[in-house]
């Protein structure tokens, strides 16, 4: 599933965008006041202190298309913190596509950890150093071709590996402490004297099928909608190849110690 996972980790730089309204599009789900919607719905912040983190979830579920969010990650000494931004359905057989941004000591790069779950099964981790400072400006993080039957899907299915395609998913994000593993395998702990830690969100935009709770599927005329054809162009594909070549630090598809009997079937896909 190399190509499919890479579709979910394409990054953009600061860009002007017509953003949604967080009051209309999202619910704060936990944090006891640590998550805030500001500037008439144009900005959302999550904060973390020693007592609790915080999180939010979209009001709608989505299939097919492209979802953008501009995020500014926790600045300074963010060791032990995790900012998670992901799509997920619910239940033990859920589908999920993850970004997890692992904090680090000041001056050290963030690590972006990705994973994909299909029918409750994950284990498709990849990790990348970020090649820019994600704390000084907002950067756009995009999910492309969500749940879409891409040009790779039939090949993936022939290899015996499912793809997230049947379940509509919510957008989630949370800021929390994981200093038992997040930074250098847990060797570097969170410095709580730096709290509260804050991540910021703006310019949410979804060109995607919005799925109602009643139907659980896209309309019958979906194939004629603009969001159905959203996918990476050639320059986007080349950019992903560049990121993989220069900044990937872990790929489950090359971890022979983890898979001594052979790699998962999707790893054979080009």
UniProtKB/TrEMBL annotation:
<keyword id="KW-0378">Hydrolase</keyword>
<dbReference type="GO" id="GO:0016762">
    <property type="term" value="F:xyloglucan:xyloglucosyl transferase activity"/>
</dbReference>
<dbReference type="GO" id="GO:0004553">
    <property type="term" value="F:hydrolase activity, hydrolyzing O-glycosyl compounds"/>
</dbReference>
<feature type="signal peptide">
    <location>
        <begin position="1"/>
        <end position="19"/>
    </location>
</feature>
<dbReference type="Pfam" id="PF06955">
    <property type="entry name" value="XET_C"/>
</dbReference>
<feature type="active site" description="Nucleophile">
    <location>
        <position position="96"/>
    </location>
</feature>
<dbReference type="GO" id="GO:0042546">
    <property type="term" value="P:cell wall biogenesis"/>
</dbReference>
<keyword id="KW-0326">Glycosidase</keyword>
<keyword id="KW-0732">Signal</keyword>
<dbReference type="InterPro" id="IPR013320">
    <property type="entry name" value="ConA-like_dom_sf"/>
</dbReference>
<keyword id="KW-0808">Transferase</keyword>
<keyword id="KW-0052">Apoplast</keyword>
<keyword id="KW-0325">Glycoprotein</keyword>
<dbReference type="InterPro" id="IPR008263">
    <property type="entry name" value="GH16_AS"/>
</dbReference>
<dbReference type="GO" id="GO:0010411">
    <property type="term" value="P:xyloglucan metabolic process"/>
</dbReference>
<keyword id="KW-0961">Cell wall biogenesis/degradation</keyword>
<feature type="active site" description="Proton donor">
    <location>
        <position position="100"/>
    </location>
</feature>
<dbReference type="InterPro" id="IPR000757">
    <property type="entry name" value="Beta-glucanase-like"/>
</dbReference>
<dbReference type="InterPro" id="IPR010713">
    <property type="entry name" value="XET_C"/>
</dbReference>
<feature type="glycosylation site" description="N-linked (GlcNAc...) asparagine">
    <location>
        <position position="104"/>
    </location>
</feature>
<dbReference type="GO" id="GO:0071555">
    <property type="term" value="P:cell wall organization"/>
</dbReference>
<dbReference type="Pfam" id="PF00722">
    <property type="entry name" value="Glyco_hydro_16"/>
</dbReference>
<feature type="domain" description="GH16">
    <location>
        <begin position="16"/>
        <end position="201"/>
    </location>
</feature>
<keyword id="KW-0964">Secreted</keyword>
<dbReference type="GO" id="GO:0048046">
    <property type="term" value="C:apoplast"/>
</dbReference>
<protein>
    <recommendedName>
        <fullName>Xyloglucan endotransglucosylase/hydrolase</fullName>
        <ecNumber>2.4.1.207</ecNumber>
    </recommendedName>
</protein>
<dbReference type="InterPro" id="IPR044791">
    <property type="entry name" value="Beta-glucanase/XTH"/>
</dbReference>
<dbReference type="InterPro" id="IPR016455">
    <property type="entry name" value="XTH"/>
</dbReference>
<comment type="similarity">
    <text>Belongs to the glycosyl hydrolase 16 family. XTH group 1 subfamily.</text>
</comment>
<keyword id="KW-1015">Disulfide bond</keyword>
<comment type="function">
    <text>Catalyzes xyloglucan endohydrolysis (XEH) and/or endotransglycosylation (XET). Cleaves and religates xyloglucan polymers, an essential constituent of the primary cell wall, and thereby participates in cell wall construction of growing tissues.</text>
</comment>
<keyword id="KW-0134">Cell wall</keyword>
């Amino acid at each position: 599933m190399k190509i499919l996972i890479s579709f979910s980790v394409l990054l953009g730089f600061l860009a002007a965008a017509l953003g949604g309204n967080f009051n209309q599009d999202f619910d704060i789900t936990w944090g006891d006041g640590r998550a805030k919607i500001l500037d008439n719905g144009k900005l959302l912040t999550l904060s973390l202190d020693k007592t609790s983190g915080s999180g939010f979830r979209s009001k709608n579920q989505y299939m097919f298309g492209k979802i953008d969010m501009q995020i500014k990650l926790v600045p300074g000494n963010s060791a032990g913190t995790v900012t998670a931004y992901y799509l997920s359905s619910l239940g033990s057989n859920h589908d999920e596509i993850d970004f997890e941004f692992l904090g680090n000591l000041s001056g050290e790069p963030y690590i972006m950890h990705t994973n994909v779950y299909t029918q409750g099964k994950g284990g498709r981790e990849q990790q990348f150093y970020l090649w820019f400072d994600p704390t000084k400006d907002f950067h756009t993080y995009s999910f492309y071709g969500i749940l879409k039957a891409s040009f790779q899907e039939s090949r993936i299915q022939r290899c015996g590996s499912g793809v997230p395609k049947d379940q509509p998913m919510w957008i989630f994000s949370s800021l929390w402490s994981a200093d038992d593993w997040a930074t250098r395998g847990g060797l570097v702990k969170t410095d709580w004297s730096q709290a509260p830690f804050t991540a910021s969100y703006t310019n949410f935009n979804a060109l995607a099928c919005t799925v109602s709770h009643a139907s659980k599927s896209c309309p019958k005329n979906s194939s004629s909608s603009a969001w159905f054809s959203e996918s990476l162009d050639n320059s986007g594909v080349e950019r992903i190849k560049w990121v993989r070549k220069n900044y990937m630090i872990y790929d489950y598809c090359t971890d022979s110690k983890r898979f001594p009997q052979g790699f998962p079937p999707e790893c054979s896909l080009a």
